[in-house]
Amino acid sequence: RAQFARGKRRIEGGGRKGGALRNLFTHLATCGYCGSAMHFLNKGVGPGGGTYLKCSHALRGLDCVPTAWRYQDFERSFFLFVKEIDLAEMLRV
Length: 93
Prior knowledge:
93 residues
């Protein structure tokens, strides 16, 4: 059973798959400074709370810029940028 579970995680990825979709950029977003994966953080409600994307190296105190993006701001910026891309032109062979 353990080997089956490990194999399944290798193909599908670990973590929760149900409920509300939280992070559209899972396994896609990487740090612009060091290239490591970006992690989704939920800091709850209140001042400084909310959801963020932060570099995994910065989270572990390794050599990277320790800044985080507010997830909503990142998502909004991403979709505004993508909207301006001419996909038909990019996909033309």
